[in-house]
Amino acid sequence: MAVTQGKWIKLNQKGTGPGARSSHAITIVGEKAYAFGGEFKPRVPVDNTLYVFDLNELTWSVAEVTGDIPPPRVGVTMASIGSTIYVFGGRDATHAELNELYSFDTCTNKWSLLSNGDTGPAHRSYHSVATDDRRVYVFGGCGFAGRLNDLWAYDVVDKAWAKFPLPGDNLKGRGGPGLVVVGGKIWVVYGFAGMEVDDVHFFDPATEKWVQVETTGEKPTPRSVFSTVAVGKYVFVCGGEVDPSDLGHLGAGRFTQEAYALDTDTLVWKRVEDGSGGGDHPGPRGWCAFSGGRRDGKEGLLVYGGNSPSNDRLDDIYFFTPCLD
C-alpha cells in the first residue's frame, strides 16, 4: 500500500539560534542538527557560525570550532556520514560561485578543507547533495556559465572525487532539484531548468546509466527548491516554488505547501494528507534548510526556515514523520 498520511510537529526552540534565513543548510548527526550559511537579505550571506540544535531538548547553541572555517555563503549544502559533516559549494558575498569541500568532525569540532581549485566538481550554488554509507553525491546547481546537470561522488574512505557519465539532453541543467539515494540508485526529482520542471531520473552506479522514468498517479506540479527526503522506497517532496518571481532571487515566487510521496518501485505518486492548514504545518515555503534523520526513534524530515510568499525569511522548525503502511 502507498503512503497516504504524514504528521508535522512544530519544534518550539529555546535559546539563541540562527534566526530567520533562507538558502542555508542543515544536517542531522545523532540527536543534534547542525545549521550553516544562508541569507536574511537576498544574496547577502549572514554569517559562518555553526549552530547546533538539540532535537530532544530543543535548545540552540553555537559550536566552538577550530580549523579551516568556511567563509560565509548562501546556496550551500550540508550532508553527514557517521559523525562527520560535509559542506560543499555555495555563493559568497561577491556573488561568486564556490567549489570547496569541507568536513566538520562533530567529535572534535574541527573544520578541514578537503578539496578546492581544480579538484572535484566545478564551482556552483543551489545544487543538491545526498549520501549513502560511504559517498557524498553532488548534482547540478548554478555554475559560472549556467545551470549544471553533472553528478559527482566524494568517497569519504578513499578521500577522492569521482565524476559519473553525463546524462542526455533530456535531463537539463537545473538548480534546486531533489536528490536522494534509494535502492542503490541516485534519484533526481524536479528542479528549475529555466522553468519549473516535473521530470524524474535516476543514475544506476552498477550500470553507469542514466534512466528517465515516467511517473503516474497524483503527480506534484512542476517545482524547485522544495524539501525532500527518502524513507524506505519512498521519495517525499514537501513544499517548494511552483512559479518563480519576476525579480528572480530578489523576489518571492509562488510557493506551495503540499507533500507528495513517490513509490520508486511502482513509480506512482500519492498526495500525502499531512494536516495542511493546522498550527503544526509549515505552510507554503521554499529555499529551506532540510535534512533527513530520526527524532523520537522515527525517521523523517527536518525543515528549518526558508522564504515565504511575502518574501520574508522564516525562523521556525518542523519535523515531518510519514506514516508507512
TrEMBL record:
<protein>
    <submittedName>
        <fullName>Uncharacterized protein</fullName>
    </submittedName>
</protein>
